């Protein structure tokens, strides 16, 4: 039994203590309900007495000589009588005895221990989850270090086997290249292959780009984003280990000269456009911090075995905080896909990515590169040419000649979406989530 003086409840400033006791100890408990009623009665009585005393004081201050017997009786009635005081003292005593009960002490102790233990368990589980996302392998021979993100495809990787395959890579294994490095096809066994991007060291800007790409891609898992399985850090170079896309890039499928390559039909082109828009929308709106790709083009849209689009190459990706709308950096990207404001302000924004996607959508519709030789000869460009065609409602004449059969209305709708993405004023361009919604309203694959 621990002594506890509860007379402080007489003061209204401490009445919140009673409320706390009621909420946590008294609620739904008949044994303690008497305590609740006693304390509440005591507090209400105190308020009534205080009000009456204030009335008497006001009367006396107005008429000092008017303190009559009636006022005296009012003062006397403002304080509890002997029986009332006994009942109040009895209630306080009952509350003091119950508050000192070992049951309450045990209850409070158990609650505190449960709270502390839950915090410890949650912290342990979070750490275990974080540590389980990646596996670090030290290579004593080359002094390098490989970090593999937890995924079924990357479980077979080991530092020695990976390095042996890496040393045998040659120009015939090259499947692409960009401003930050060269991409190779690395085959581990008959069932497992990766796309490995080699970044040469010695350039601080390249190293910063490597770190930026790593942090942007490491934890992103989305069906329309190319997965990063891991990376390798060595003295002379860095390697990024990507998921390999068996059907290559959209640029190769649209503009490749292979005789074995079949033209893309309209349903496939529509699915690629919608998948790419879904991936970019995920980067813009769902990733924290939000990601601006800054180099959206047909060669950075890869296709898996089901011809689903995957957005790739975050070597130029720029992270920004959710409350920011742009990132001021050196202009980077590919000529023909860059929004016009890049050349004026040097600002990378999500609306710039929307413009670049609009150019890719025109590529899917027309089958022409934005830097096509025919446009250079005529002194124009793909965007300007298509805008004139749409204005004159001659969209059918601009459609890719290899696309023999297509639904006219749906193609016109796609042209209109591209035109909205290509507005010269960035504020008039829709957000990527809106672009995706407009594309999904095209009904060719929905019906």
Question: Please, could you describe this protein's structure?
Answer:
It is a single chain. With 447 residues, the protein is of the alpha+beta class. It folds into three domains: 7-100, no CATH class; 134-243, Phosphorylase Kinase, domain 1 (2-Layer Sandwich); 250-440, Transferase(Phosphotransferase) domain 1 (Transferase(Phosphotransferase), domain 1), CATH 1.10.510.10. 49% of the residues lie in helices and 14% in strands. The chain contains 16 helices and 13 strands. It has helices at 15-26, 30-62, 69-77, 82-99, 102-132, 159-167, 204-217, 250-255, 266-286, 340-345, 350-366, 373-378, 382-391, 395-398, 408-421, 432-440; strands at 134-138, 145-149, 174-178, 181-187, 193-200, 228-233, 237-243, 290-292, 301-303, 309-311, 318-320, 326-328, 347-349. The strands form four sheets. It has a seven-stranded antiparallel sheet with strand order 1-2-6-7-5-4-3. The longest helix has 33 residues, at 30-62. The protein is globular, with a radius of gyration of 37 Å.
Summarize the structure.
Pfam families: Pkinase. It comes from Musa balbisiana. This protein has 16 helices and 13 strands.
Ordered list of secondary-structure elements with their pairings:
Elements: H1 15-26, H2 30-62, H3 69-77, H4 82-99, H5 102-132, E1 134-138, E2 145-149, H6 159-167, E3 174-178, E4 181-187, E5 193-200, H7 204-217, E6 228-233, E7 237-243, H8 250-255, H9 266-286, E8 290-292, E9 301-303, E10 309-311, E11 318-320, E12 326-328, H10 340-345, E13 347-349, H11 350-366, H12 373-378, H13 382-391, H14 395-398, H15 408-421, H16 432-440
Antiparallel strand pairs: 1-2, 2-6, 3-4, 4-5, 5-7, 6-7, 8-11, 9-10, 12-13
Helix pairs in contact: 1-2, 2-3, 2-4, 9-11, 9-16, 11-15
